[in-house]
Input
Amino acid sequence: MNTSITLATTRRILTQLRHDPRTVVLIIGVPSLLMILLRYVLNSEQRFSALAPALLGIFPFTIMFLLTSITTLRERTTGTFERLMTLPIGKLDLLFGYALAFGILATLQVLVAAGISLTWLGLTIAGSVWSLLLITVLDALLGTALGLFVSAFARTEFQAIQFMPVFVLPQFLLCGLFVPRESMGWLLRGLSDVLPLSYAVDALTQVTRSASIDGTLVRNIGIIAGCAMLALVLGAATLRRRTP
Amino acid sequence: MHESAIVVDGLRVVRGGRPVIRDIGFEVARGTVTGLLGPNGCGKSTLMRSIVGVQIVAAGAVTVLGHPAGSPELRRRIGYATQEPAIYADLTVVEALRYFAAVLGTPESDVDRVVGQVGLTDSAHTLVGALSGGQRGRANLAIALLGTPELLVLDEPTVGSDPELRDELWTLFRELAACGATLLISSHVMDEAVRCEQLLFMRQGKLLAQDTPEALRRRTGAPDLEQAFLRLIKEQESAAP
Output
């Protein structure tokens, strides 16, 4: 690990984004727009407050997943990845550089979406706003890390986009948003138990309903962070300096 | 110090089930400009990838500056430029170079130096994606020059350049060699071969000849290098039908 190379990578990615202001506006704005849409579709503050925290986690997760998988794939297809692999940069330097850059963006995204939800849209939660923010930022980081990992298996941008429904939508269906996880059959429950988004939604639901920070909440937050880290390390393991 | 910059011994590379490099061996002396010549698809780029250590090889050994190709200690000492520019299109020339300089740990003044060397000072703050093809090729070359590497492996660095620019680039290559750098430069244009001290002629994954341009012309009795190359092909075909 080399911190200065990691930071240089983060700076480079943020500079690339600075030259693409439309993407930045989309990243920061889209989750907020979706939250506003959700609020008025449900047309009830109470129902909005029940669903909104989970979606505050899921929207950034999905967007960051897509964004990272496309960006890293582009790095491979344009040859810059191979060039970096001939230079003194560690695989983790590169991946942490990515995670940090997109983590900063994800934090901004979550701050804006959560801010709008908590003020204008009337979201009320029993737990602390800080736990809500921590969990949603971790969700976005998890999306980033999974996107980095999955991009290793995509050869084209078409494939990378298809991985979104493959990796994200099943988690979306199984995370307890539509049907409580306790009432699923054993197979679906088992699947739900191994998917990280389930723990994110559990944690967010708990923050909505209760003010207590208990062992379950801490465990769930730990699982999300652990999965993000695991996906990053697995992502590094899929990077190869030598290719056929 | 007198060891060769590159030693390739019995190299074989298979890509997609097809042999691309078939048992190649040669040495490149330090401080020389060596041209790697041959038609498109003859394995030049694969050979270069093997030398910089990003190619999985089936057999043989490649030793670069005294280390096995791909060794971590070589990553600061080799400059590599692929044929297709591998450079971030959504950064300016200087921004892209600063990133690669940071990865190499070279000072920022190095960025100005290489921008000047490839003649991109006027476009230093232009987005790479907005450059012309020739300029993008030079930006790609500039990255390889960062940190003053001992060995430069350049895959078709002059492709798409006009004659004047090509001449400037060859002057630069000779200056770099005069400062002690070793250059391996691929091309499929025979008129570039004259500018090299040593030539490697490749065809269908095999090495046809390694010699100086003058000696190759004399040996084949050909008026120019293009003819020399064609005669070498005939020789090879009659030797092994």
